[in-house]
Design a protein that fits this description.
By secondary structure, this protein is of the alpha/beta class. The protein folds into three domains: 153 residues, Rossmann fold (3-Layer(aba) Sandwich); 97 residues, Alpha-Beta Complex (Glutamyl-tRNA Synthetase, domain 3); 117 residues, no CATH class. The protein has 19 helices and twelve strands. A three-stranded parallel beta sheet has the order 1-2-3, with helices on one face. The protein has a three-stranded antiparallel beta sheet with strand order 4-5-8. A two-stranded antiparallel ribbon has the order 6-7. The longest helix has 16 residues. The N and C termini lie far apart (69 Å). It binds glutamic acid. Glutamic acid binds next to helix 6.
Length: 441
């Protein structure tokens, strides 16, 4: 059964970069009728916070990315300890005692000599007595996985054939000196035991994948299909990593971005498929194809979310936005005509308020000097209420007959006088909502 997982660390809010990972894994599972697991990677007790676990769930729920079950790494520590024991037994695990400063020095020396900064395995052959002495002096060491120095190869779902020389990679630390299990082994144990068949994650994990393939092999597990998506950059190709903090999903929600807009963009950005607004999740699932994604860095511009949001809002019926319409202050009896007027003239739902204010309070009229007489003449011709969808047409027809003006010369001064703006909703739908004018009649 196709099984995927989204595995955030609850050390912060999730952002557009995380969403891309989540969405790809979600869509693969749903397209195959499989299972999508939300896995909380919380082996770091200091940095993991319950508030972030809740926030991650809220953000995914907001987007409709429903998971089939939740797994928490902090509840599976005994499984990781077992795996560690097994690696010890088969001679693929060794304790190392270098301090961070010592490691740093080694790296610098290697770099100075033009060599890649790969851990030199100095601890591999330490005699037991020396280990004892180091342990007494420095406390427990870290545990490193001993890589087999051979090429590690896989066919990546996005990057194609990958081949990495294990000798160019440091033996990864899987357990810290304080006993904390690190992601590299926890993830392998989970993926294997939970039957994860497909792992999509960012290309910053490619080297991890190489080492994890060897760990999976050593533990006798089955390797999932791996795919690594490109990382997002800003609109000019600039690194986004520092700005991702400001692109948290909850900030976008705050700014009025609609879920379907965000999903439509993130599910296709960086693929050869066009980014278009999709009607619903089913449509996204249907058209999703991992092999259409490219390896090149993917440009992301937060501004692209707003036209998609506007387009999505246009497609909604009153019942889907009735709360927002009421929140803007619109009385229930005017909700329907108000939404019909406003829907094509908003970027986010927050804009409804401004349109209702215009309806309610009117606007500072914008009248050019040469139109002054014309506007007064026209105002005198405004028919008696109640206003309806015909009023604008009847009125402007009458104004045309009396003044001889037509086209833009007729409509624009009236629009500007009534709304204070040169552009906006269709006047026929707006006029019946203008409370000031209604009241005058
Ligand atoms: N917790 C890891 C991360 O957020 C998960 C990576 C993975 O998908 O394996 O980077």
């Amino acid at each position: 059964m196709t099984t995927t997982r989204f595995a955030p660390s609850p050390t912060g809010y999730i952002h557009v970069g995380n969403l891309r990972t989540a969405l790809m894994n979600y869509l693969i599972a749903r397209k195959a009728g499989g299972i999508f697991i939300l896995r909380i990677d919380d082996t770091d007790p200091e940095r993991s916070k319950e508030e972030y676990v809740d926030a991650i769930k809220q953000d995914l729920e907001w987007l409709g990315l429903n998971w089939d079950r939740v797994e928490r790494q902090s509840e599976r520590l005994d499984r990781y300890a077992e795996a560690a024991d097994k690696l010890r037994e088969i001679g693929r695990f060794y304790e190392a005692f270098e301090t961070p400063t010592e490691l740093d020095l080694k790296r610098k020396k290697q770099l100075n000599m033009g060599k890649p900064p790969v851990y030199d395995r100095a601890a591999l052959n330490l005699p037991d007595a020396e280990k004892e002495a180091l342990r007494a002096e420095r406390g427990n060491g870290v545990w490193r996985f001993k890589l087999n120095h051979e090429r590690i190869e896989w066919t990546d779902g996005i990057l194609g054939d990958i081949s990495i020389d294990a000798a160019s990679v440091s033996d990864p630390v899987l357990i810290r000196g304080d006993g904390q299990v690190l992601y590299t082994i926890a993830s392998v144990v989970d993926d294997t035991e939970m039957g994860v068949t497909d792992v999509v994650r960012g290309s910053d994990h490619v080297t991890n994948t190489a080492t994890q393939i060897q760990i999976i092999d050593a533990l006798g597990g089955q390797c999932p299909n791996f795919a690594h998506h490109s990382l997002l950059t800003g609109p000019q190709g600039e690194a986004l990593s520092k700005r991702l903090g400001t692109l948290a999903l909850r900030d976008l929600r705050e700014q009025g971005v609609q879920p379907m807009a965000l999903l439509s963009l993130m599910a296709r950005l960086g693929s050869s498929d066009p980014v278009e607004l999709r009607a619903d999740m089913a449509e996204l699932v249907d058209g999703f194809d991992l092999s259409r994604f490219g390896a090149a860095p993917t440009k992301f511009d937060v501004q692209d979310l707003f036209p998609l949001t506007a387009k999505h809002l246009q497609s909604l019926t009153l019942s889907e936005v009735s709360d927002a319409v009421a929140d803007a202050g619109v009385p229930p009896e005017l909700a329907e005509p108000f939404w019909a007027m406003a829907r094509k003239n908003i970027t986010t739902l927050a804009d409804l308020k401004g349109w209702w204010e215009l309806c309610q309070d009117g606007a500072e009229p914008l009248i050019d000097d040469e139109d002054r007489d014309f506007v007064s003449e026209a105002m005198a011709l405004l028919p008696e209420g109640p206003f309806d969808g015909e009023t604008w047409g009847d009125w402007t027809k009458a104004v045309k007959e009396v003044t001889g003006r037509k086209g833009k010369g007729l409509f624009m001064p009236l629009r500007k006088a009534l709304t204070g703006m040169e552009r906006g909703p269709e006047m026929a739908t707006l006029l019946p909502l203008l409370q000031v004018i209604r009241a005058r009649n």
